[in-house]
């Protein structure tokens, strides 16, 4: 059997489904509600890679679902990411998203926060309206709760000026905050949308892939191509994020450098001196911490892929399973 | 037939169900997650009147549901209010909620916003885990979306310094922002949880009751007993809310007073001069605008009750329907 729908076609189909499920400015009964509709459509219309939705679709097809059956679930997953990003950008005081100003920079925090809530409701609406199964709904519950819990961990470390953190702390946080919704949930939801019980390896391997993916993201944040990355380069340093790169650097730094870096990270974003941020940025690159994190990411991605390969190739429609693997492979060497 | 469960018992049962469904600090695997659990439980543990949940339970019982069958739906409704209040308090920069500091005043905006998202997910979790019907889930979608849309209207008026608003604008906004989830949804969800089709009058009369309820709330905000009200007295003036009271006052004020009031309302909360807020507060009370709004509220509440009475008394288990009416009556003369 040949996989008969390309990733570009899948992406376009998800995007179409998603935008069709959002309110249209031209149908609004008042100017204010036209604005509301534009806000809900803003992040989704900026595009994005639709990586998670595409993974979900091919996994679903591999397990026997129809494209029609998986599209609403994939669109809901993408919607999840969109509302979570709106709220994340507020929480992290981020300036940019997908190469444009963050939503709260355009409309202020109150309206953007509320638009995120409305999109959150739309996520559930898509699922319920399409008659998603209880298993799919429960997986969404788990995904949102895992993500929020990981987000709490990360933010409470920044809020509490915590630096007493090791690699296990980082892995636990990022496993919840990012890996679950990036890889575990798309794989599991694909199978569940097809009415299949997700293989246990989806959770274990998905966690490795998702963590690897996030570490690559942290690396790109420091050394990505600004034209492709879509977010502010070194934004994580301005925001004081506890990344694996930073934790490795702090572990290996001299007491003097450690003090200097921690002092900088304690300062609120707006008051951070730019030359100090540049110093830390350079030190992370020079010290080998970035290269080490990159190695960790590559190992995790390789292990995750190896574990998934036989399962996905052995799925009822293995040609789609092979496409899942191809997409996952592209995670290792990406630029955005 | 005698209604065999008192409102106090219903409240206690909802509260118990709700708290049992939230994570427990003592079960957390890390200190940060114990804090996360405390944050999720904070607003729910402050109590509140559980008015909406109680309305839902008695409506459900009136239409033949078991207490066991309606409790999860009522608890989810109360959870909705809790997360919406956490986000509202951030959006409105409110200081207090139920007599204590607002959640973001205790933990900062990022953590509080995220806790609200986690509670939002818990709302759906309660419903899905209890096996709520598609009709119940769709009604929740509608309720959250109506509320967010109304919230957008109100906030965009404040953000846009809009004063060109009349009574129809206010009624449209408050119908969506508050009346739907306060009265329409509890009545409809009660019937839906019992597997019954909600009578059309629930929407029409519920809207009147909910709007009346919100106007009473706006009145209490200006002249409530601080010990009972639980929020800051005159908080709406500090926040610049467009209430019916304010719109009536502006309509009837001299050009001089109108200019003075609008100038005050344009100033951000932190920069508002207290003596000017006191002046406007006094003028609203003296001018008759408060008394007029109170009359509008009483008319709406009376009309809503009258329309509902025969339907609720005629419900399959009319004794419970009578209790719904009793609770709705208490809305007219309340102090908190």
UniProtKB/TrEMBL annotation, chains A, B:
Pfam family, one: polyprenyl_synt
Record GO terms (molecular function): metal ion binding; prenyltransferase activity
Domain of life assignment: Bacteria
The keyword Metal-binding is annotated on this UniProt entry: yes
GO biological process, one term: isoprenoid biosynthetic process
Entries under SUPFAM superfamilies matching the protein: Terpenoid synthases
Keyword GTP-binding appears in the UniProt entry: no
Keywords: Magnesium, Metal-binding, Transferase
CDD domains: Trans_IPPS_HT
InterPro entries on file: Isoprenoid_synthase_dom_sf, Polyprenyl_synt, Polyprenyl_synt_CS
Cofactors: Mg(2+)
Family, per entry: Belongs to the FPP/GGPP synthase family.
Listed name of the protein: Polyprenyl synthetase
């Amino acid at each position: 059997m040949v996989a008969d729908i390309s990733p570009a076609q899948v992406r376009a189909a998800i995007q179409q489904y998603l935008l069709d499920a959002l309110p249209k400015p031209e149908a609004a009964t008042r100017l204010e509600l036209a604005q509301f509709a534009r806000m809900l459509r803003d992040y989704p219309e900026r595009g994005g890679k639709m990586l998670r939705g595409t993974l979900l679709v091919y996994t679903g097809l591999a397990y026997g679902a129809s494209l029609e059956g998986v599209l609403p679930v994939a669109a809901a997953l993408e919607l999840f990411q969109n509302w979570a990003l709106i709220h994340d950008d507020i929480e992290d005081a981020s300036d940019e998203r997908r190469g444009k100003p963050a939503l709260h920079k355009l409309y202020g925090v109150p309206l953007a926060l509320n638009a995120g809530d409305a999109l959150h409701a739309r996520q559930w609406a898509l699922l319920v309206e399409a008659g998603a199964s209880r298993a799919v709904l429960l997986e969404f519950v788990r995904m949102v709760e895992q993500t929020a819990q990981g987000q709490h961990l990360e933010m409470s470390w920044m809020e509490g000026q915590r630096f007493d953190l090791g690699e296990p702390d980082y892995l636990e946080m990022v496993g919840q905050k990012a890996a679950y919704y990036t890889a575990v949930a798309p794989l599991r939801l694909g199978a569940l949308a097809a009415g299949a019980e997700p293989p246990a390896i989806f959770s274990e391997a998905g966690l490795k892939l998702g963590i690897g993916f996030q570490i690559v993201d942290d690396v790109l944040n420091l050394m990505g191509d600004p034209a492709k990355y879509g977010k502010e380069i070194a934004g994580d340093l301005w925001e004081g994020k506890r990344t694996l790169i930073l934790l490795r650097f702090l572990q290996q730094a001299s007491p003097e450098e450690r003090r200097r870096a921690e002092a900088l990270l304690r300062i609120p974003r707006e008051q951070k001196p730019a030359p100090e941020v540049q110093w830390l940025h350079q030190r992370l690159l020079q010290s080998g911490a970035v290269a080490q994190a990159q190695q960790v990411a590559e190992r995790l991605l390789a292990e995750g892929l190896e574990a998934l390969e036989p399962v996905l190739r052995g799925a009822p429609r293995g040609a789609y399973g092979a496409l899942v693997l191809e997409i996952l492979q592209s995670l290792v060497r990406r630029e955005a």
